[in-house]
Each structure stands twice: as structure tokens, then as C-alpha cells.
Specification:
0% strand, globular
């Protein structure tokens, strides 16, 4: 398992440099927004998803699956490696976003947005990221990277379209109390979805011809 993770991290080194540049750029960009913390944390989760997708792309280019499965590695371990990589990237992205946005908030504080609210934002965004990974990874294992890019666009577009539709139809959004209750449930929902997603991906990959 360690070897699988190292393989992915080595292949992502070049992309990591690009991400570091974008990290600094969006840190400055978010400083001018009403709430830089939420925006920056959301951006980092998106970047972590893109890095996970790139790891699949690199594997496809190198025809790694055929070679990797000739090694003493089971298909379940291959799937578990990708899920662990996605989880690590999501957590690292959230932590980096929290630290950098904390620095920004120190110089440009947001009213009624203290440490407690900042932590709530981090937990909520990270849980959403893990939930989105739960949807995306089985699609990649089933349809491949290229086709799954279209699904990724749909995954992000659907919630936005739903919120816009609610506004046009005059449907009121849930109250703050309801949203806070949902926020507390999000980590549990994300964990359950992630575990179920792993089982689905494992079944897909174990039955797939390489």
C-alpha cells in the first residue's frame, strides 16, 4: 500500500508545483472577497480532486494497470490506494486552506466569523469534498478518466443549478438552524458514502478486464 501511494505522489510532483503557484495566486485573490476562508477551502478541495484525477491519467498514459497487476498487489489494494490517496489529498488541501485563510483573516477579519465558524466551514467543506470523491471515484473506475471529466462538471453544476432554480421558483432555502444540523451530520454522511463508494469501486475494478 505504501508503494502504491509513493508511486502516485511521485507522479504528481510536477503537478504539485503548478498547484503551489495556483495556491498563492488564489490566496491573494480570496483576500478581496467577503469571506476568503470558505472560498479558499472550497478551491483547495477542487484542486485535490483534480490531483486525484491526474493520478489516474498518469496511470493510463503509463499503462500502469497491466504492469501493476503483474506485481504481488491485489486489485482491492489498488482501489484502496486510490481512495487513501484521495482522502490524504482532501485532508491536506483542507489543512493548507485553513492555515492560509487564517493568516488572511488575521489581517482582514470577517464580522461574526471567528475560530468556531472557521472550523465549521473547514469540516463542512472537507466533508463535501469526501462526498464528491465518493461519487467521482466509482465513475472513473467504471468509465475511465476522460469520460469522468464530464461527470465532474455535472457534479459541480447540479448543486449550483438547484440553488438557482429554488430562487426562481420562490422556494425558500433551509433556515440557519437546519443548515447547522445538516453541517453536523455531513461528516457521518461523508464517511458512510466513502465506505460504500469503495465497495462499489472495488467490485467494478475486480470484475474489469485490464
Amino acid at each position: 500500500m505504501t508503494g502504491l501511494l509513493l508511486k502516485d505522489f511521485y507522479s504528481l510532483r510536477q503537478y504539485g508545483k503548478t498547484m503551489l503557484f495556483m495556491l498563492v495566486f488564489f490566496a491573494f485573490l480570496s483576500a478581496g472577497m467577503d469571506n476568503p476562508a470558505s472560498f479558499f477551502e472550497g478551491f483547495m478541495i477542487i484542486m485535490s480532486m483534480m490531483m486525484a484525477i491526474y493520478s489516474f491519467s498518469y496511470d493510463n498514459l503509463a499503462k500502469w494497470d497491466r504492469f501493476g497487476l503483474s506485481l504481488p498487489v491485489t486489485r482491492t489494494e489498488v482501489v484502496a490506494g486510490k481512495y487513501l490517496l484521495s482522502l490524504i489529498l482532501c485532508m491536506l488541501g483542507g489543512i493548507l486552506a485553513f492555515l492560509l485563510s487564517s493568516v488572511i483573516l488575521t489581517f482582514r477579519p470577517v464580522e461574526d466569523f471567528g475560530l468556531k465558524e472557521h472550523l465549521y466551514s473547514l469540516v463542512g467543506v472537507s466533508a463535501i469534498g469526501i462526498f464528491l470523491f465518493s461519487i467521482l471515484l466509482p465513475l472513473i473506475f467504471k468509465f475511465g478518466v476522460e469520460k469522468s471529466r464530464l461527470f465532474l462538471i455535472a457534479i459541480f453544476a447540479a448543486p449550483t443549478a438547484a440553488v438557482i432554480s429554488f430562487g426562481q421558483l420562490g422556494i425558500e432555502l433551509p433556515s440557519g438552524v437546519v443548515l447547522l444540523g445538516l453541517l453536523k451530520l455531513l461528516p457521518l454522511i461523508a464517511v458512510v458514502a466513502f465506505l460504500l463508494s469503495f465497495l462499489v469501486s472495488n467490485r467494478i475494478y475486480c470484475s474489469k478486464e485490464i
